[in-house]
Amino acid sequence: MSPFNQTIDNHQNFILTGIPGMPEKDFWMALPLCLLYSTTLLGNIIILVVIKVEQSLHEPMYYFLAMLAATDLSLSLSSMPTMISVHWFNWRSVILDACITQMFFIHTFGGVESGVLVAMAFDRFVAIRFPLYYATILTHGVIRNIGAAVLLRSVAAVLPVPYLIKRLPFCRSNILSHAYCLHQDAMKLACADTRVNSIYGLLAVIFIIVLDALILLVSYILILQAVLSIASQEERLKALNTCLSHICAVLLFYVPLIGMTLIHRFGKHLSPIVHTLMANIYLLLPPVLNPVVYSVRTKQIRRRIVRIFCKDRIGP
């Protein structure tokens, strides 16, 4: 009997799926996926190395960028094992504990990324509104505390999820909708009351994603007010230019998230391929493009990368 048709009483494993209607071992899917992950790993590692070795980048703005790169790297590494196993090797089965572990890390680093984007908005506000006190306000200790608070908040919010999933009996179909494990996806397969899971999941989303989105909106209203108070038009444009990379990072995170949420809520009539592609775009697009955006938009990072790759040609 095919594993896609079987029902297991209180089963302890799940079956992962890739893009519906496509052979999971098709190299036309596997090769682009490998390219995306390779680009993600290489791009974010380069950002981290450049910020570490370049003394001129040891500033609050770039420390927060390093946090974003580390978060993107961690988020990609959380989903990569099962994505590669499904699309490269056609290994679809994953045990319950491994699935719960993966969903914990995916949801945790998703929350961390949202929090880091808020911290970066605060950094831009302080830099524009209080330029003379920028280094005094955002000291190394303050930056470490902000990073720790962002991480602890996300861990605390997601920590109950494994226990909420572990208590559920699974006696229906064990086929998940994606090539990785998510709380809302696994929850649908339970043959018990999942209202507690649903309510807690909603509260966690409000506490992290919705709250952060509101803070980002308020932050940019304050930033815009601060920019408009600058007398020189040239200085106003320069101040706004420092925010463009961050605005791109915010859009890369929230636009796919909102799109995936709307399709999940109102697009039940759409093809399963659309749902799967939107979920993969939400998970894969920001870690791939964030390093590209900051490398292109940030002159200091771009110059250092050019020096790293061209030092044999141009000399020391």
TrEMBL record:
GO MF term list: G protein-coupled receptor activity; olfactory receptor activity
Amino-acid biosynthesis is among the record's keywords: no
Coiled coil feature spans: none
Subcellular location: Cell membrane; Membrane
Residue ranges of domain G-protein coupled receptors family 1 profile in the record: 43-294
Classification via Gene3D superfamilies: Rhodopsin 7-helix transmembrane proteins
Pfam families in UniProt: 7tm_4 (PF13853)
One GO cellular component term: plasma membrane
UniProt keyword annotation of Transmembrane present: yes
Membrane spanning stretches: 27-50, 62-84, 104-122, 142-165, 199-223, 244-267, 273-294
Subcellular location, principal: membrane
Keywords assigned: Cell membrane, G-protein coupled receptor, Membrane, Olfaction, Receptor, Sensory transduction, Transducer, Transmembrane, Transmembrane helix
InterPro entries: GPCR_Rhodpsn, GPCR_Rhodpsn_7TM, Olfact_rcpt, OR51/52/56-like
Membrane topology: Multi-pass membrane protein
Gene Ontology biological process terms from the UniProt entry: cellular response to lipid
Family statement drawn from the similarity comment of this UniProt entry: Belongs to the G-protein coupled receptor 1 family.
PANTHER family: OLFACTORY RECEPTOR, OLFACTORY RECEPTOR 56B1-RELATED
Protein name (database record): Olfactory receptor
Organism encoding this protein: Pteropus vampyrus
Lineage of the species this protein comes from: Eukaryota, Metazoa, Chordata, Craniata, Vertebrata
Underlying gene: LOC105306241
